[in-house]
């Protein structure tokens, strides 16, 4: 099988695009796809300062690689969640640091255990009645990303969500008809409240398989293992189901997600314009919250001091 | 024979089949893994040669 662009031996065949590409043309194609998504969704411009949330996995490190290759001003942010199982946090941090060093790029590291005295699994265990590990993790990451972006003067936070991630979330939201989540699922989350950073997903048109192939072809050393707490997650099951559909019907996954975005853009799916709850600054950290007093993040740590 | 390695599992398949057929034969979805031979990514229609050692990499990973 030959590369459609140059005729050399292909390394990947993307059935949904009817496109086979070689190890030289494929990374350039991925970079073009990302550039097109950035342009189409007006994610950011060449002068903007971008904070890339990196986990040490293939998607976020590849996103950082693509943004640097496209000439953007992109720094990394690694959040050490203190996940000890399988050395997950230690290994993923090493991958993020090695990438930054090899590319001469700036990496900010925020350690949850060092700054707050407990790892994410420890907080989740202490507050198990209110939160599971994955919900604490999401809350902690959102808070820290927002704080670092705000304090560091970044214009936008870029995350490595790929099309499979977005399609799995969409499937989950449709199965539950979670209208509120459907309304907010988008490649760009605007900074529509004071103190909230703009968030974008430049990989939203690329399959997870393409991002894994990009990392392998570019020689990006990433953590292969899934987070130990993600085992059995519903999102992984939805990805599996979508890949079974895709295997029978190439392009169905892409069509499912892209048609949703297009339909909303054209106004074919209308959401009631509900007034958002009024937000006020958290009494402790200053980030916007709908709660009186402390935000959900700061409430996590109430009681931690007594146990420390 | 061709050796197929995926995480802590190993299988043997016959030379002459495609990567895609080998992945299906060991019970995986060809969209869920990528195949590497001698450290290089190979496409799904590559014909496996006698003595090949193919490492499959899971497409799903990361936090």
Task: Walk me through this protein's architecture.
The complex is a heterodimer of chains A (about 300) and B (about 60). Chain A is of the alpha/beta class. Chain A folds into two domains: about 210 residues, Rossmann fold (3-Layer(aba) Sandwich), CATH 3.40.50.620; about 35 residues, no CATH class. In chain A, a hairpin with an 8-residue loop joins strand 7 and strand 8. In chain B, strand 1 and strand 2 form a beta hairpin. Chains A and B meet through helix 2, helix 9 and helix 10 of A and strand 4 of B.
CATH arch. level architecture of the largest domain in chain A: 3-Layer(aba) Sandwich
Superfamily (CATH H level) name of the largest domain in chain A: HUPs
What is the number of helices of chain A?
13
As a percent range, the share of strand residues of chain B is 35-45%
> Which word captures the global form of chain B?
globular
Can you lay out the helices and strands and say which pair or pack?
The complex is a heterodimer of chains A (308) and B (63).
Chain A: E1 12-14, E2 19-21, H1 25-40, E3 49-54, H2 58-69, E4 73-80, H3 88-103, E5 107-111, H4 112-116, H5 120-126, H6 133-151, E6 156-158, H7 163-176, H8 179-184, E7 188-189, E8 198-200, H9 208-217, H10 234-248, H11 252-265, E9 280-281, E10 288-289, H12 296-300, H13 304-307
Parallel strand pairs in A: 3-4, 3-6, 4-5, 6-8
Antiparallel strand pairs in A: 1-2, 7-8, 9-10
Helix pairs in contact in A: 2-9, 5-6, 7-10, 7-11
Chain B: E1 2-6, E2 9-13, H1 19-25, E3 33-37, E4 40-42, E5 53-58
Parallel strand pairs in B: 1-5
Antiparallel strand pairs in B: 1-2, 3-4, 3-5
